[in-house]
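Form 12-C: Joint structure prediction
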Amino acid sequence: MTHSRFNAGRRRFLSSAAAAGAMTLGSPLVLRAQNSELNITGWGGKWGEVFEATVGPMFEKEYNCKIVRDTSFPFVPKLQASSRRNPIYDVVHSNQNAQAAAVVMGLVEEKLDPTNIPNMAELYDYATSDTINGVCMFTSAIGMGYRKDLVKEVPTSWTDLWKEEYADKRGAYVIPINSLGQAFLTMAASIYGSGAKDLDAAYEALEKLKPIKLVDFTGAMEKMILSGEVELCVIHDSGVLRYYDTPNEAAFCAPKEGVLALEQVLNITPGTQKRELAEAYINFMLSPEIQKTMAEAVWYSPANKNVVLSDVYQERLLTTPEKVAQLKQVDWMWYNANKDAIDMRVNRIFRA
Amino acid sequence: MSEAATAPAALTSDDAAPRRTGPNALAWLILPIALLFALFFVLPISLMLLMSVLTGNPMFEQGVRFTPENYIRFASDSYNWEVLWITIRIGLSTTLAALLLGYPLAHLMARVHSRTGHALLLIAVLAPMLTGIVVRTFAWMAILSDTGVVNATLMRFGLIDRPLPLLNSETGIVIGLTHIYIPYMVLTLNGVISRIDERLEQAATNLGAHPLRAFWEVTLPLSVPGILAGSLLVFALSISAYVTPLLMGGFQFMTLPLLIYQQISASFNIGFAAALGIILLVISLALVIGYNRVLGLLSGDRDLT
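Section 2 - Result
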């Protein structure tokens, strides 16, 4: 009996020691034996393919959990309809315009705690700036796409879009439903008015863009520039660069007035029951290894300044402080507060 | 209609009192469908109506109150009325186009005596319905775009210098919608025309009427219920269409469904979107009521409701 009591005590001691060891290894973020589901949002397409094949399984294995991804956009209305105490998502991945709207409705956090997400210390300033809610993990540069074979001169300025020769051969977005279109409106206000918030100047400039071809999402614009339906258009660098390996006549131009940031933002829902795991996931996505994998898969510029990409990506993406300095961020809180009035006005401008 | 009204006179007692006080056992059979109807139609519509007159979602927000704000917002901006008119205009144009193209086809289907001929025509009408709306709309986009089949052919033969604005136009939307919804018109008309006794037309021609006059004065009036039913279907489907106006209109033609989606997906304004949904529903309901009235007038004093 004495012998068995000793054995039991030894087993208890060993298992406690093992548990303590596991906790130490798992620190500082989360116990690595969660065995739970993490509900997140995300993109489909190439992003989805690479995420499902490599990034997602890596996180699941490391944290012994299951990632459940919703790729059916839009995400915010689903959050609106979901319980605040047990929301449908734990982590929301979206563009910043949607995050700003969700913050106002109390659906996501305004800011994240960097002490729980150590990799936030490695990011460029834009990734945690005042205009960002949550944390930006990648950005694209919104500039202009053009057809090398169809334009007379290589465009250098946003004002080239207004040239007569591009009448009905230029492309932009449906402003009420597309954040690239909304960002472009603020750029038009900056160029033709007193600043990014000079709406009257923006409306006047947009009026002069007609005739123009409008699309609702970036994939449709990629199709139009590749097919030659438009010769010059507003587009993000990823939308042109992702065809780098296939022969085509489309090229990207970063206008001299600067490029607009199209931020991929991660944020946590206040009611999540899995905050530690959610923070671990965000920290994971900000790690140099994952940043490099995803940046090279979809041509997004990594927010982590310590990431070194392969040459072909390093040269073309926003990977140095100098290149990052060209980025102009939109004040989405201000934009969303004025969105209804802007929508009604631009709907009138672009009606047939 | 009540049970007593539908029961044959011989089965009712002399004093008109029902023999059984409980409901007919067969009536229980409609219970599942009634529950289904309540769950998937009455409940969502009621919730939509409620959301349209509230300041927020009472499930999650404090201090939510009733407000006519969303309806006032709709009424006070002329742009919204413009959107409503475009929606109705596209619905009317599509209905007219579907009727003009569908009637001859339905007439032919009803009058063709060969079974094979009828089957082939039926397949021709039904076949497009086996393909998704998005696929059919993309096919039209490929045909009508600036670099599409029509414009490329016309330009190759030197008939035009610049591409015709076929896509991103109201004409494009109506073409797309007509193609998608014409089977509903043809099938409805075919059902009605095939029940019209062919000998009535023959009698008219025997009495000296030109076949066209016989059609105008005999067949056409008798097929009015089919025209109305088909038109109602096509109109209701057209004004609530989303994909085709979106893809064929180039975002220059805002219809109510597009505005509703815009409000939900990008402005996150559920209340205003719900109000727009109710307005669309009211239009459709007004049409159904109007349709029943017209049909009632055409059919004499019979109770059709």
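Section 3 - Comments
Residues 37-67 of chain B form one domain. The interface with chain A takes residues 57, 60, 77, 79, 82, 145-147, 168-170, 246, 250-254, 261-262, 264-270 of chain B (CB under 8 Å).
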